[in-house]
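Researcher: Can you fold this with pyridoxal-5'-phosphate in place?
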Amino acid sequence: MTAVSNTYPTAALREADAAHHIHPFSDTKALNEEGSRIITHAQGVWLTDSDGNRILDGMAGLWCVQVGHGRTEIADAVHAQMSELSYYNTFFKTTHPPAVALAERLAKLAPPHLNRVFFCSSGSEANDTVFRMVRHYWDQMGKPDKKVIIGRWNGYHGSTLAGASLGGMKAMHAQGGLPVPGVHHIDQPYWFGEGHDMSPEAFGLKMARELERAIDELGEDTVGAFIAEPVQGAGGVIIPPDSYWPEVKRILNERDILFVADEVICGFGRLGEWFGSQFYGLEPDLMPIAKGLTSGYLPMGGVLVSDRVCEGLIGKGGDFNHGYTYSGHPACAAAALANLDIIESEGLVERVKTDIGPYLQERWLGLGDHPLVGEARMTGLMGALELVPSKADLHRPFKDAGVPGLLCRDISFEKGMVMRAVRDSMIISPPLVLTHEEADHLVATALATLDETHRILKRDGWLD
Ligand SMILES: *Cc1c(COP(=O)(O)O)cnc(C)c1O
């Protein structure tokens, strides 16, 4: 076996990493001076670094490791598939058993009106595919002017040109002149940060009606689609008020535009249903998926396509001039199938809904009592803690926004748990196999992390 393991001392690995490796979403210069943390092993919800520290993976890698780390069932399935057919394409009138089996399986799991899938290798590629499908669909329907896709500020749809453009991350747009033409952004349903002068209910309605307003302003005959995550993930686990999705549904029902539910995080059990669309009763025309599809064991994504869109895309005949060398890759499809086997046989989706979800939610929401926390929120197995300088003035952010969050993230790591900082929100999205004991440990570590962060912020004059 030739796994690249920790055969070098930590210092040597850090040095080589600093010399040759450009990290995603990082200040690589600063990181090179500090040195990367080197993860060498992982099992279940636990990571091990090159110094032998055990760290609870509160983020399931990057929102993706639903079944936990180190599942040999998936490794074995990939090994068997690679031994039989390691690669072939699906372009030229060919297919292969794993791609067929996975497409059929996904159609069974998805809402009933979604019966076909286009495969790719990531969530970003899925959203590039969405971009091209929406335009091609409307061309085929004889409405080529319906090109604009409406996204939301602070939404995340990936890092390629189309993905970053559809997303509403201003820091990403600022580099490279994004968004590309034909994308329009509306406000997000982020009540704690932007809506607290209204009730959550009223704010949810108002934000939903932003969509209606944008369609009217742009003209319905120029708008092709609206794209949104059921719950915003990378934007900070933003759970919309209960009034939001029903009102968006009303608006979409009255308008002739496509709805794209980006399920890259919410899919595969994260919210206690197979897809976030089922959780909120949404009926998307297109559903990009990735992450939990393979639990991150191999890269794979896809776009599930509704019968209605298929009629326009496929029904009239003619090529769709789009595809990836690795569309439907057999080894990745085998990993996905083995992953779905685990999710099904261990009842992980149901477990999030009725067992570990409610168990962790109750304890996580209790952290809202901490003096540093303005709001604790969680749905399914994704949660956030809003750090604030004063409980008396709950919605006032820190002056130097983002700094306390990073401090808290570093302290969490030191205490043996991965939480992610988004602005000054602390985020978790643990593997769906988290046990009750591990959930208790997670909450206890979060509490100890908050205490230590509070102590330092107080000492340094950050708090009221
Ligand atoms: C992560 C993510 C993407 C991008 O997926 P990649 O595999 O990183 O390209 C797209 N949409 C959402 C909602 C995501 O969370």
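Model: Folded with pyridoxal-5'-phosphate in place. The chain is about 40% helix and 15% strand.
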